[in-house]
Amino acid sequence: MHHFEHRxxxxxxxxxxxxxxxxxxxxxxxxYSTATLTRHFQAxxxxxxxxxxxxxxxxxxxxxxxxxRLLASLGAGMDIVSGGELYRALLAGVPAERIVYSGVGKxxxxxxxxxxxxxxxxxxxSVQELLRINEVARDMGKTAQVSFRINxxxxxxxxxxxxxxxxxxxxxxxxxxxxxxxxxxRDLPAVEPVGIDCHIGSQLTxxxxxxxxxxxxxxxxxxLKGLNLNIRYLDLGGGLGINYNEEEPPHPTEFGAAxxxxxGHLPLKLILEPGRVIVGNAGILVTExxxxxxxxxxxxxxxDAAMNDLLRPSLYGSFHRVDEVVPQGRPAQDVDVVGPICxxxxxxxxxxxLPEVRQGERLAVYSAGAYGFTMSSNYNTRPRAxxxxxxxxxxxxxxxxxxxxxxxxxxx
Length: 412
Ligand SMILES: *Cc1c(COP(=O)(O)O)cnc(C)c1O
Prior knowledge:
By secondary structure, the chain is of the alpha/beta class. The chain has two domains: 4-32 and 280-411, Lyase, Ornithine Decarboxylase, Chain A, domain 1 (Beta Barrel); 34-277, TIM Barrel (Alpha-Beta Barrel), CATH 3.20.20. It has helices spanning 18-25, 34-46, 65-73, 83-91, 108-117, 127-140, 178-187, 208-224, 252-263, 276-279, 312-316, 404-408; strands at 4-7, 10-13, 16-17, 29-33, 53-58, 77-80, 99-101, 121-124, 144-151, 173-174, 191-197, 233-235, 269-272, 283-294, 299-303, 322-324, 332-338, 347-355, 362-365, 386-391, 394-399. Strands 4, 14, 15, 16, 17, 18, 19, 20 and 21 form a nine-stranded mixed sheet that branches. Strands 5-6-7-8-9-11-12-13 form an eight-stranded parallel barrel. Helix 8 links the parallel strand 11 (191-197) and strand 12 (233-235). Helix 5 packs across helix 6. The chain starts with a strand and ends with a helix. It binds pyridoxal-5'-phosphate. Pyridoxal-5'-phosphate binds at residues 58, 60-61, 79, 102, 199, 202, 237-240, 273-277, 370.
């Protein structure tokens, strides 16, 4: 459920005309809806209301400060994967004790930064990383709270690039060797093992893989009891999918009920790291048709947004719904919607039935709120898009469009 709807023949983001936003701020343009973000966060968070939990929004899905500030104001913690994300989260006013730090390659300076801030815990992905955290913490006279990210070897049945809990993936510790790692952590002076963590992948459309992973973690939790640790957190990561096309992912309520049933009786605080499910359908990318062109084999719609703005179609072959901002009612054609970048992989939609569109008209690319702007780049020296946050009748510039000057500033 989101707040992008057609009214009187034109697309609205809440109470604001998308066509007017495009005219005012130019294209390509990301537009986010406050009401949708709020609703998605609250629907997710309240699904776990009956147990002790902390919802740590995954910053990498959409790290705009205004989005982070909004989610922080709703009580969200954050899941970060870099010093840069920590910087953003703190700037957005997220209390450090609601921040967990994931990722396979934390650098010493980043570890120091996180210890300085006083984050809740590190999700540790290797024994070497544990030793490094111990060293840094010892030098600072601190103790770092840690969880190990366990790789449960579960197939999330999603795109291979976003599967992370299979044995062959780079993430986490193999579940069979993890016990030794906890024993080591117990005996190191400057780390304290406080939790168990896993994150098996992204865009999951059924609950079963989560429950399968949870089963394995709970068996492991039992084994850990022999080590006499004070384990008090179980972090199940993110990964709940959204509807891009015809997927029917479980509603957060269903997800929450299933996890609460499996976990509610245990003395563990549940941590969740949702990203896509909060922001994915809370954003669209608005683009203008530059040209149309017919070749003997294809109809191309050439637009001013490209793979540097929204990489998912090129990177994963992902489907994003594309539709007119102001429907003209012309007959549909089979088209590829492509950008100006010099790559054949630069497309937003392939072999899509779309009503005939003309130069100067605008298209909305849906479900672009997650891994949209955050994966954007300056390839072809293209300034990154502006981001607009709508709230009712109000629209604010959440990020100004980059300029040529800002693109070369670090080179001068
Ligand atoms: C990317 C990521 C998430 C968020 O995944 P979504 O599919 O967007 O919910 C959560 N935790 C970790 C460790 C991640 O890498």
